[in-house]
Amino acid sequence: MKLVVVSAGLSVPSSTRLLADRLAAATAGRTPARVEVVELRDLAVEIAHNFTNGFPGRKLAAALESVTEADGLIVVTPVFSASYSGLFKSFFDVLDPDALTGKPVLIAATGGSARHSLVLEHALRPLFSYLRAVVVPTAVYAASEDWGAEGLPERIERAAGELATLMTGLSAPPKHDGHDGDDRDGSAEKAGDGGFTVVPFADQLAALATR
């Protein structure tokens, strides 16, 4: 499986990239996945040109393709003016509107104060719900005082576990149990054209609740 991390940090080193790396490591430790990082800072000029000429540059096109082909996505943005950064939003504005449909996404953000933590629920979650992604229940916010304090590692592990579970559920191979596949109660899992089993989202959430 392919896990793509989109980091919108601007500084070097970046707390946004640090959080992204920790989330990726925790997720990859729970399910076999090849991790690829997309640094939006390096794509800023090509993103701007895409808005003016309608065509992505070589690096931007490769990043958009990686996100589209990912089995799971981790997105992390710094908070500016009580919302996600303009660079972060611009990247997803140039992404194909259908690219994230049904894709598991873990949302996260960093900021200088804990009072910005609601950005996850009033800005990021609505954005990815609009793009028809499957957003994991636990979102992760890291304020300056959270680094090295209790709570952040636990939130990272919980969110990573939820993402890994969704990635595994959405990519699991079909099971052959000898039945003819007759879906009498409407709840049986069905194999798609890609040869994988689509697990109903309600069943995935129920599985998370028992962890």
UniProtKB/TrEMBL annotation:
Pfam families: FMN_red. Transmembrane segments: none annotated. Residues 169-195 are annotated as: Disordered. The keyword Cell membrane does not apply. Residues 1-147 form the NADPH-dependent FMN reductase-like domain. Gene3D superfamilies: 3.40.50.360. It comes from the Bacteria. The keyword Flavoprotein applies. Keywords: Flavoprotein, FMN, Oxidoreductase. Residues 174-192 have a biased composition (Basic and acidic residues). This is Oxidoreductase. The lineage of its organism: Bacteria, Bacillati, Actinomycetota, Actinomycetes, Kitasatosporales.
